Automatic annotation (TrEMBL):
Record keywords: Isomerase
GO molecular function, one term: isomerase activity
Name of a matching Pfam family: Rv2466c-like
Domain of life of the organism encoding this protein: Bacteria
UniProt xrefs under InterPro entries: Rv2466c-like, Thioredoxin-like_sf
Source organism (scientific name): Terracoccus luteus
Region: Disordered, residue numbers: 1-20
Protein known as: 2-hydroxychromene-2-carboxylate isomerase
Length: 220
């Protein structure tokens, strides 16, 4: 989740962007409401701008391994292995194109439909919506795909350091945590935010620009 919410948070597609488009990659954990907000904003940018987005998994559960956390947050992260494991398993079996579809299906249920306390149901219904085999849900409670999950996570977090969380975005090789924003900007405002983020993140020696959040995610 967002930075300082106690350090929150496959190898994705390696194919290059279409000629003339801007290569963008976003690393997400389906549990994080702020990553969900950022992803909706990036979709709005994608609708208006020639960008080629790769959607990749990072894991708050991996990020916070070995850290001293409040009991309720640790419980959430223990359950949080399920959705990211299933997305990685589905990607390995069915290709990169299912990653975004499953993120949308899982995220809609977690953040918009209030199903975050029943992640097994989120996974079951999400797989059905996307048209993937129900057997993939078994990956949620096994470590068979953890090596690939950790590799995807590390590829993203290595670009920004482990003192931040999700989302992580890379734009033509310039990477940053965030933006943490609510509600997700639309129209010209979405483009202004995109251009501004890329501008400041690409400035040599720039590390941080921040203010305290005064409201939670606004899902609209």
């Amino acid at each position: 989740m967002a930075d300082n919410d106690t350090a929150t948070g496959g190898t994705g597609s390696t194919s290059g962007p279409a000629s003339g488009s801007t290569a963008v990659e976003l690393w997400f954990d389906p549990l994080c409401p702020w990553a969900w907000m950022t992803s909706r904003w990036l979709m709005e940018v994608e609708r208006q701008r020639d960008i080629d987005v790769t959607w990749s998994v990072m894991s708050l559960s991996v990020l916070n391994e070995g850290r001293d956390l409040p009991d309720d947050y640790r419980t959430m992260l223990d359950k949080g292995w399920g959705p990211v494991r299933v997305i990685i398993a589905a990607r390995e079996a069915h290709g990169d194109e299912v990653v975004k579809k499953l993120y949308d299906a899982f995220g809609t249920r977690i953040h918009l439909q209030g199903m975050g306390d029943d992640l097994d149901a989120v996974i079951e219904q999400g797989l059905a919506e996307v048209g993937l085999p129900a057997e993939l849900a078994e990956a949620a409670h096994a470590d068979a795909h953890d090596e690939q999950l950790r590799a995807s996570h590390e590829r993203g977090i290595s670009l920004v350091g482990d003192e931040v969380g999700t989302p992580v975005i890379s734009v033509d090789g310039v990477a940053f945590f965030g933006p943490v924003v609510t509600p997700a900007p639309k129209g010209e405002a979405a483009l202004r935010l995109f251009d501004g983020c890329v501008l400041v993140a690409g400035t040599p020696g720039f590390y941080e620009l921040k203010r305290t959040r005064t409201q939670g995610p606004i899902f609209d």
